[in-house]
Design goal:
The complex is a heterotrimer.
Chain A lengths: L2 E5 L3 H12 L5 E3 L21 H5 L3 H17 L1 E3 L3 E6 L2 E6 L2 E12 L3 E3 L12 E3 H11 L1 E2 L3 E7 L1 H12 L3 E7 L3 H11 L3 H16 L4 E3 L3 E6 L3 E6 L2 E4 L2 E6 L1 E3 L2 H5 L4 E4 L4 E4 L12 E3 L9 H18 L8 H22 L6 H4 L5 E3 L4 E2 H9 L5 H8 L12 H12 L18 E2 L3 E2 L2
Parallel strand pairs in A: 1-2, 1-6, 2-3, 6-20, 6-24, 8-16, 10-11, 10-16, 11-12
Antiparallel strand pairs in A: 4-5, 5-6, 7-17, 13-14, 14-15, 18-19, 21-22
Chain B lengths: L4 E2 L7 E6 L2 E6 L4 H6 L6 E2 L6 E2 L12 E4 L4 E3 L10 E3 L7
Parallel strand pairs in B: 2-8
Antiparallel strand pairs in B: 2-3, 4-5, 6-7, 6-8
Chain C lengths: L1 E8 L3 H12 L4 E4 L8 H4 L3 E2 L9 H11 L2 H5 L10 E5 L2 H13 L8 E4 H7 L9 E5 L3 E2 L2 H14 L3 E3 L4 E6 L4 E5 L4 E9 L5 H7 L7 E3 L2 E5 L9 E4 L5 E4 L5 E5 L14 H14 L7 E7 L2 E3 L6 E4 L6 E5 L5 H18 L17
Helix pairs in contact in C: 1-7, 1-10, 3-10
The chains are: A alpha/beta, B mainly beta, C alpha/beta.
Chain lengths: 447, 96, 367
């Protein structure tokens, strides 16, 4: 029996499910995690005690509401937590839950697969004690832990300041915050950032709080390497160094687009995200009939936008199936989304992508941590005349490991572009293949 | 030694497990990653240099936190909750 | 207008080998490839480099290919991760074992060196094979390689010897003007030559049809998957008599498994692609118990061109002088490729191939 499937129970997926249900459509809601909520609004395990305020700060209200919505939905829709969608083929989704494989036919699908941190590797990044910014946040929010006793935060983007602040507030020792963006970049961005005053205010608040609490914040500071033998012992940047036992770093986020790829969606180069993204119209329709894209999985816009996009995509789906919706609502949502998109441009100005990263990456830097492929090995393949990213991958194995290029793919493209002299959007994109994540042997199959 | 430091939620029931055959304790609600990294400093050895790894993304994306359970199953430590009595084994990796 | 003696359509291992051999013999050759050389079937196949199991009339060509593979670095400049690990063809029943024995008997004169192993011998020599196998036939000098490295390397070697290789060049029109073949490409490039080699894989039947010798070619898409790096256990590449899940392990530890067509190990729906992948995941443990706890990290498929008799088309066109064919390898073209390329080059240079290829003539599809 064909049905509407929503993949991902973060802010976009939950809001889409709620919208569909409000219009009499009962979707299947599939989510890989245990308790849903996505990343920013990840729910702690059931037996944890901290309040929403402690976990989500200014976003406590939004988080609580979202979680309550999911709890209501759980009984009303076909909710499949701890379920991985690993393939899409011929109108069916292949799923894995607890060692059991199952497939369902869908009539329409809303892809709300979210994002991961965007990583530009730095020497020493594979050491125990080094994590992404998102990971550091998850350790705290989801497990009540700091990633170490003395933590350095590096990279750039609004998440950098937020997580450093959350750590310090929770009682962790934050030894330094290194923002690769110069202060001047943030000043330049101010006019655009004023478009979302509440968000801007929060960002400034975190920044100011850190300084007020004696935490060194270095701007225009690029992490050059992480020291340590068996674990982190310190970091170096711009002729400076500091001892620490944990590092969290990232440069903003990257979209999880593998499912959209398997669904056959057209991709296009997106300059703002500096990435290939599945194309979507203002309503969230992809290039494939019946496939809708909502949230950070098709371009980074943040949790608020994800909720709006989830609702907008659900409304588009309803419209496309001939179900009546409030005709004024789409325009309202699209206006709000457009405003957030302008703000995102401001953020890119405030926290610019470090375009010199590739040129400065040393040959010995391990680029692909799964396959242990160095920057030098990638450059050697480019020097042989290969520039297309899948071709380079075939020759040196970058992106061929368990994570299938999630951590290294974007960085690999930067190295290839820099070495070959081609523009970043002209080196191809890593092709997604099933399974979206590793599948175990001995899987039980539903006939 | 440990990598992770518990800052909150420390009043939770204790669970016992073994790590490479040695007894250890964690708390109800810990992921395997948390349980191991609050009493040890790595989760696995890398496949081509046997370098110590301790996960990276904590959200099931980087695939660098796989551990082995006694029943032969392999699981991602960051997205699997600790159960009482579990026997966790760390793969040492390989020098290629 | 690009003038040359030979135009090769298709930069897979067959076309690229032909271009290499022709260039080595001093001929002016242009190879035209729609994408990147070795990026299709030649680059995504299982990687088996084997003679065992081939129909008898393929064996002379396959033996010649075996000789060419023996100095792969000399031929293409890289080792391509080629190892003569041996090829162990497993039998799951005594009927299958008898079939392996019959093949060994029938092929005795060809120098494959096949060794039959009964259950006890199999368990002793290859203890990692699942107990469900009752015996096997071993071809000690068969092996496997990395097609993603090997196939493109043939094209680069051809280039080094003076062949012109044009990648990302889609052919839109092929004609014979009475003297020369005229080839037009989407990017405006035009080529002409006395000889045209049709090594265009899945597109090759279009060319054949255009020259009034259509062939009933179909496509198949085998399922393949690769595991994460695992402790190295397999010291031989495997096949299964009667069809099944074949496997090889590379030095870095990944296992590549293939299969999914024509065998029923349990109740299954008739679905292509991922159903076959799930079958491999579900059933591989029977033959390869060491896979317990392992993960598959990527699956893929290739497009294999099949003629109804599962034999390729190699040799002269039946209608057009100067046109040669080399296509339709039914998923078994990787090992043969260099010898087929050589055979086509020999036809151009001397009028005939040294290895017998009459069995592969396109004429067999004409009434």
């Amino acid at each position: 029996m064909k049905t509407v499937v929503i993949v991902g129970a973060g802010p976009a997926g939950i809001t889409a499910a709620r919208t569909l249900l409000d219009h009499g459509v009962t979707p299947v809601l599939v989510d890989e995690s245990l308790r849903g909520g996505g990343q920013i609004y990840r729910r702690q395990p059931a037996n944890f005690q901290r309040s929403a305020k402690q976990l989500y700060g200014f976003e406590a209200g939004k988080a609580t509401l979202l979680h309550r919505t999911l709890d209501e939905l759980a009984t009303l829709v076909d909710y499949r937590p701890e379920t991985l969608v690993w393939n899409a083929e011929n109108g069916r989704l292949d799923m894995l839950n607890n060692g059991h494989a199952e497939s369902i036919e869908y009539a329409q699908i809303i892809v709300a697969t979210g994002a991961t941190d965007r990583i530009l590797p730095v020497p020493g990044w594979t050491l125990p004690g080094v994590y992404s910014l998102g990971a550091a946040q998850i350790a705290l929010k989801y497990q009540g832990c700091a990633i170490g006793e003395r933590v350095a935060f590096c990279g750039s983007g609004p998440l950098l300041y937020l997580v450093a602040y959350q750590y310090a507030k929770a009682g962790a020792k934050v030894v330094a915050v290194l923002d690769s963006a110069p202060f001047s970049a943030q000043c330049r961005a101010l006019p655009a950032l004023l478009g979302q005053p509440a968000t801007l205010a929060k960002g400034l608040y975190y920044r100011a709080w850190l300084t007020a609490h004696g935490i060194p914040v270095h701007q225009g500071a690029t992490l050059s390497h992480i020291d340590g033998e068996q674990r982190v012992t310190g970091i170096h940047w711009d002729q400076q160094e500091i001892a620490c036992d944990a590092v969290a770093f990232a440069h903003a986020l990257r979209s999880e687009t593998q499912l959209a790829d398997l669904l056959g969606c057209e991709f296009a180069w997106n300059a703002l995200n500096r990435a290939w993204l599945p194309q979507r119209d203002a309503a969230g329709r992809s290039s494939v009939a019946g496939v809708y894209l909502a949230g950070d999985g098709a371009g980074i816009m943040g949790a608020d936008a994800a909720q709006m996009a989830g609702e907008r995509a659900a409304l588009a789906l309803l419209e496309d199936t001939g179900i009546a919706i409030d005709p004024r609502r789409p325009a309202v949502l699209e206006q709000q989304l457009a405003s957030i998109q302008r703000f995102r441009h401001g953020l890119e100005t405030a926290f610019p992508f470090p375009e010199n990263w590739a040129a400065e990456a040393p040959d010995e830097l391990i680029l692909c941590r799964c396959e242990e492929v160095s920057v030098g090995e990638v450059r050697a393949v480019v020097d042989e005349g290969h520039w297309e990213v899948n071709r380079v991958k075939a020759h040196c194995r970058v992106g061929m490991g368990r994570c299938q290029g999630r951590m290294c793919g974007l960085a690999a493209a930067e190295i290839i572009a820099e070495r070959s002299g081609r523009e970043i959007q002209n080196v191809g994109r890593l092709r997604g293949q099933a399974p979206i994540k590793p599948l175990p042997f001995g899987v039980e199959v539903q006939p | 030694m440990a990598l992770f430091k518990r800052l909150a939620e420390t009043e939770r029931p204790t669970l016992t497990f073994t790590l490479d055959g040695q007894p250890a304790t964690g708390l109800l609600g810990d992921t395997l990653l948390t349980a191991v990294l609050t009493c040890a400093e790595h989760l696995r050895g890398s496949d081509f240099s046997a370098e110590r790894r301790a996960g990276f993304c904590l959200m099931g994306a980087c695939q660098d936190c796989w551990v082995r359970l006694e029943d032969g199953r392999r699981v991602r430590a960051c997205s699997t909750l600790l159960e009482d009595g579990q026997a966790i084994r760390r793969d040492p990796g390989r020098q290629a | 207008m690009i003038d040359s003696e030979v135009i090769v359509l298709g930069g897979g291992i067959v076309g690229a080998s032909a271009a290499l051999m022709l260039a080595q013999k001093g001929r002016r050759v242009v190879l035209v490839e729609r994408d990147f050389c070795g990026s299709h079937s030649s680059g995504v196949n299982y990687g088996g480099v084997r003679r065992q199991g081939r129909p008898l009339h393929q064996l002379p060509l396959s033996q010649r290919a075996h000789a060419l593979w023996s100095d792969l670095p000399g031929l293409i400049g890289i080792d391509g991760e080629y190892v003569r690990s041996g090829h162990l063809k497993l039998a799951r029943s005594h009927e299958d074992l008898a079939a392996l024995q019959a093949y060994a008997d029938a092929t005795r004169g060809f120098g494959l060196g096949l060794q039959m192993l009964d259950h006890a011998q199999l368990r002793a020599r290859f203890p990692w094979v699942g107990d469900v196998a009752v015996g096997a036939s071993l071809c000690p000098e068969d092996g496997h390689a990395n097609p993603r490295l090997v196939s493109p390397a043939f094209a680069r070697a051809a280039q080094r010897h003076g062949a012109r290789v044009m990648e990302q060049t889609e052919v839109t029109q092929v004609e014979y003007d009475g003297r020369l073949f005229q080839v037009r490409c989407a990017n405006g490039v035009q080529l002409q030559a006395r000889w045209l080699l049709n090594c265009a894989g899945a597109w090759a039947s279009t060319v054949a049809a255009q020259f009034d010798e259509p062939v009933p070619m179909t496509s198949a898409h085998p399922a393949m998957l690769v595991t994460e790096p695992l402790p190295v256990v397999m010291d031989v590449s495997t096949g299964v008599e009667g069809g099944g899940i074949y496997a090889r392990q590379v030095a870095r530890g990944n296992c590549i498994l293939g299969g999914g067509r024509g065998f029923a190990l349990g109740p299954q729906q008739a679905r292509p692609g991922q159903a076959a992948v799930l079958e491999i995941l579900r059933n591989a443990g029977e033959l390869y118990p060491f896979l317990k706890g392992a993960q598959a990290i990527r699956t893929w498929s290739g497009t294999e061109g099949y003629l109804p008799d599962h034999e390729p088309v190699i040799g002269d066109s039946s209608t057009q002088p100067g046109l040669l064919h080399g296509f339709g390898f039914a998923g078994a073209g990787f090992q043969l490729g260099p010898a087929v390329g050589e055979a086509l080059a020999e036809i151009v240079c001397t009028g005939a191939s040294r290895q017998p290829i009459e069995a592969f003539s396109i004429r067999r599809f004409q009434a």
